Amino acid sequence: MNAESRNNLVKQGAIWVFILFELAFFSIAGEFLSVSEKAFMDFDNMLLLLKQSAPIGIIALGMTIIMINGNIDLSVGATYAFSAIVLLDSMTWPIFQGLGDWVIPVSWMLALLTGTVLGAINGLIVWKTGVDAFIVTLGSMLGYRGLVFMYNGEQPTSHLNWTLVDFAEAQFLGLHTATWFLFVAALALWLLMTRTVHGRNAYAIGNNREAAVNAGIRVGPHFLINFMLIGFLAALSAVVFYSESGSVNPNDGMLYELWAITAVVLGGTKLAGGYGSIISTIGGVIAIQLLRKGLGHIGADTETVNLVIGLILIAVLFLDRQLNRKGKEELKI
Amino acid sequence: MAELTKGKRDIGGVVARQGILIAFVVFMIGFALANERFFAVDNIFGVIRSSAILGVMALGVTFVVIGGNLDLSVGSMMSFSTIVVLDLHDKLGPALAIPAMFAMTLGLGAFIGFLVGYLKLNSLIVTLGMLSAIHGLTLTYSGGQNMDIADKEGTWFSVFGQGVIAGVPVPILMFAGLAIVLSVVLSKTPFGRKVYAVGGNGTAATFSGVPRARVVFYTYLVSAFCVATAGLLQASRSLGSQNTVGQGMELEVLAAVILGGASLLGGSGTIFKTVIGVLILGFIQNGLLLMGLAFYAQYVVTWAIIILAVWLDIAAKRGRLWSPIA
Q1: Is the CB of residue A305 less than 8 Å away from at least one CB of chain B?
Q2: How far off is chain A from B94, nearest CA to CA, in Å?
Q3: B189 vs B44, which has greater pLDDT?
Q4: Mutation for testing the A interface, residue in B307, B308, B318, B321 having most A CBs under 10 Å
Q5: Domain ranges, residue A154
Q6: A191 touches B: beta carbon within 8 Å
Q7: Is residue A30 included in any domain, yes or no?
Q8: How far apart are the C-alpha atoms of A275 and A277, rounded to whole Å?
Q9: Cβ count near A284 (within 10 Å)
Q10: pLDDT over 90 at B84, yes or no
Q11: Which residues 107-126 on chain A approach chain B with CB closer than 8 angstroms?
Q12: Cα–Cα distance, A291 to A308 (Å, whole number)
């Protein structure tokens, strides 16, 4: 085993070691500090944790492939909210009245289509104008949020469909529906990034765009595909979450982009592009959710979660730099 | 550089370089034609006054962006300043609360400046982490409660947000004063030149003997100072506040700075252009409202304007409209 692959193994393993550390810490600290009688490592508790990880997790998967490409997407929170509104509102449209429960797949399709189109708009602008993805998605974050508010003002959009709620609350082989969506999406993206030409090219573009262009890779279509994918995944996340909750506020999903980026960076993906893995992102998502739950378990204020996660993010950045001095992390957006 | 000097002579070059100013004038004329109330003095003062808090923050972020970095923490830092000064107002009295709040906010700015300047960590991630961390700090400090001043009638503290001197609201005076001071600092002092040098080409600046780390550190102190001023304005205007008063403002501030033409790559931008960017955002919101459009339509228009502004800017620089990306 040469130094480089050992280095990679250390980096990919780090997040899982951190998760084990969290589990051990909260289990032991919980013995002394916990307000509840239940053990932290309770099996049902862990299943619930996976379910709660799903909404941010599915978005973070999309953010991973965007960042591997060397881009970033700040508009996912707004895309999430807009797709959720389309999902719930379309169930009440008169033209779908005759469908009965068949309205569910139709509304799902409409919501997923909405997310994909919003992603495609971002992708096309990045491709055709050459404006940096950070600025393009910063703008569309405002724009898409404006569309959300224009749709229904400041009122929540609500519609409960009990068949849908039953489906969303179901457990199959012990795992909740939302968890299955997270795992299936992760598997699909993992296959996409490691087994297809698109995945290989995406890494190549993020690693060295000039070299990729010289090697004959067309950069634009890959950008577009990845932005459509993250739009689709933001909508999927909305579908998973709002099928159960049945009510969306126009402010929902705000700051989701920042949570997703935090999870992706904790998982070791490089902002500069060219390096990162879907599996490690799942680790990052679980680590954050574990921290939230664990701090609650030992009786810390929920407010401290933000403080701790922020400081951990900076610490990870610092450690990563120390471990990887000669790397090319000098980011220029 | 050759293209720039050539561009100076023809009209296209002027349009490209002063595009944002021209767009601003066009907007103003359009809105004025659509509604005669738009140019009323009280309307104009109203718009600038409500843009002042965002504007003050944008002045500081301009320094950071010209220095080649980002600051996403200004929104939650502003919440922190507002909550702290309101809390200390009743405990120490306003005369002590204000300097104490400035010291604490500058402390946060110094911490970020240390991480980005001296430790050379990525500013996007550091300030993203600090966004979350300062939000947690604010909530812990306030115990999750809203903060209110007990005696709202009998305090002179309200002068910053609500006072009027010689017919001009104090927030406008503070915004204008800070803009003039920072503009002079940026364009007329050695420090200002060093900020441009560090953001333009960090390696070259280092080899020319510019202390890169220290300059970046100071840009974050400037940003924190502006945030503290914005927090003071916010607290004094409402005399009570939620923990999340600045949430989401970091991206609006950044939008104003980008709209003003500062490049995220660093090394370009001016205080004057940022002020124009802030005013454009404010007047668009106001103009659309006067035209009877929904309040939230401004977001969609802002989106289009940001993308168009940046697109035309880089299109002028590369000499072709569509990107060369295959």
Answers
A1: yes
A2: 27
A3: B189
A4: B307
A5: 55-257+269-283
A6: no
A7: no
A8: 7
A9: 27
A10: yes
A11: 125
A12: 9
Which amino acid, B99?
P
Contact at CB, B134 and A310, closer than 8 angstroms: yes
Number of alpha carbons in the 13 Å side-chain half-sphere of residue A89: 18
Question: Strand pairing partners for A176?
Answer: A171
Interface membership of A23 toward B (CB under 8 Å): no
- pLDDT averaged over every residue in chain B: 86
Portion 35-74 of B in contact with A at CB < 8 A: 70, 72
Q: Where are the domains of chain B?
A: 2-318
- Residues 214-233 on A with a CB inside 8 Å of B are 218-220, 223
Of A127, A147, A318, nearest to B300 by CB-CB distance is A147
Q: Which residues of A touch B314 (CB under 8 A)?
A: 129-131
- Burial environment of residue A232 by CB neighbours within 10 A (0 to 12, 13 to 18, 19 or more): buried
- How many CB atoms are located within 10 Å of the residue B15 CB? 14
Q: Which two tokens stand for residue A148?
A: 């959300």
Domain count, chain A: 1
Asked if the structure places residue A84 within a domain, the reply is: yes
Q: Does A333 touch chain B (CB under 8 A)?
A: yes
Q: What is the pLDDT of residue B12?
A: 60
User: Looking at chain A, which residue has its C-alpha nearest residue B264?
Assistant: A333
Confidence bin at B6 (pLDDT 50/70/90): very low
Answer yes or no: is A249 within a domain.
Answer: yes
Q: Which residue has the tokens 């002179």?
A: B156
What would the two tokens of residue A138 be?
A: 């910063």
Asked if B255's CB is within 8 angstroms of A138's CB, the reply is yes
Tokens 């701090």 sit at which residue? A295
To test the contact with chain A by mutation, choose from B118, B121, B140, B303 the residue with the greatest count of A C-beta atoms within 10 A, namely B303
Q: CB contact, 8 Å: B289 with chain A?
A: no
C-alpha B305/C-alpha B261 separation (Å) is 12
Under 8 Å between Cβ of A91 and A98: no
3-class DSSP assignment, residue A300: coil
Return the DSSP state at B241. E
- Residue B134's nearest CA partner among B218, B53, B75, B56 is B75
d(CA A251, CA A111): 18
3-state secondary structure A197-246: HHHHHHHHHHHCHHHHHHCCCCHHHHHHHHHHHHHHHHHHHHHHHHHHHC
Rounded to whole angstroms, the Cα distance separating B237 from B232 reads: 8
Please check whether the domain covering B2-318 is classified as CATH 3.40.50. Answer: no
- pLDDT tens per residue across all 333 residues of chain A: 566 666 677 777 788 888 888 888 888 887 777 666 667 777 888 888 888 899 999 999 999 999 999 899 989 999 999 999 999 998 888 888 777 778 888 999 999 999 999 999 999 999 999 888 988 998 898 899 999 998 888 888 888 888 888 888 888 888 888 999 999 999 999 999 999 999 999 999 998 888 988 888 899 999 999 999 999 999 999 999 988 888 888 888 887 888 898 899 888 888 878 888 899 999 999 998 888 888 887 777 767 888 888 888 888 888 777 766 544 444 443
Nearest CA in chain A to B120: A330
Hey, how many other C-beta atoms are within 10 angstroms of the C-beta on B206?
Answer: 14
Tokens of residue B36, six digits: 């005669």
Q: Which residue has the higher pLDDT, B107 or B93?
A: B107
Give dist(CA B209, CA B193) in Å, integer.
Answer: 13
CB B57 within 8 A of CB B226: yes
Closest CB to B325 among A127, A146, A305: A127
Of A80, A104, A74, A82, which is closest to residue A92 (Cα–Cα)?
A104
- Flag whether A44 is in a domain: no
